[in-house]
Design brief:
Elements: E1 12-15, H1 18-29, E2 33-38, E3 41-46, E4 49-55, H2 59-63, E5 66-70, H3 74-83, E6 95-96, E7 100-101, E8 107-112, E9 118-123
Parallel strand pairs: 1-4, 5-9
Antiparallel strand pairs: 2-3, 3-4, 6-8, 7-8, 8-9
C-alpha cells in the first residue's frame, strides 16, 4: 500500500492559547515534533500520532471536544505520563485518570488538557 492508498485520521482540537497548548503537549505529552505553527494553528507529532489545534476564544468548545486513541502500549504510555507529573486526581486541568478496565471491555485512561479537551487512550485488555 502506498501513501496515496492510505487515509489518515488527524484530530483537530480547539485551543484557547496556541503557545500554552504547544508547551503542554510538547513538555508533558512528548509531542515535540512541531510540524506547523502559526498564531492561530498548530500541528504537533509524537511518533505516529499527530494532533492539529486551531485557536478559539470559546472555552465551551474545548470543554466539549475529545479524541480517542486506540491500541498500542497504553499501560506504558500511562506510566510515562504519570511520571511526568500530570495530576491524577482533582477537577483542575490538566489531569490524568487512572488506567482502568471500563464496563465496555476496554482498558482506558483519559487526559484533560489545560483548556479542557479530553484525550482518551484505550485498548482491548490483553
Amino acid at each position: 500500500m502506498t501513501t496515496a492508498d492510505t487515509i489518515e485520521l488527524l484530530p483537530t482540537l480547539p485551543s484557547l492559547n496556541i503557545q500554552e497548548t504547544k508547551t503542554f503537549y510538547a513538555g508533558q505529552l512528548g509531542f515535540t515534533n512541531v510540524v506547523y505553527e502559526r498564531d492561530d494553528f498548530l500541528i504537533l507529532r509524537r511518533d505516529n500520532l499527530e494532533i492539529h489545534f486551531w485557536l478559539t476564544t470559546e472555552k465551551h468548545l474545548c470543554e466539549n471536544s475529545s479524541v480517542y486513541f486506540r491500541g498500542g502500549p497504553i499501560a506504558a504510555l500511562h506510566e510515562e505520563f504519570r511520571k511526568l507529573g500530570l495530576p491524577e486526581d482533582g477537577k483542575s486541568e490538566p489531569r490524568l485518570t487512572p488506567l482502568a478496565k471500563r464496563p465496555w471491555d476496554m482498558e482506558e485512561f483519559y487526559i484533560h488538557d489545560p483548556h479542557g479537551n479530553l484525550l482518551k487512550f484505550g485498548r482491548i485488555p490483553l
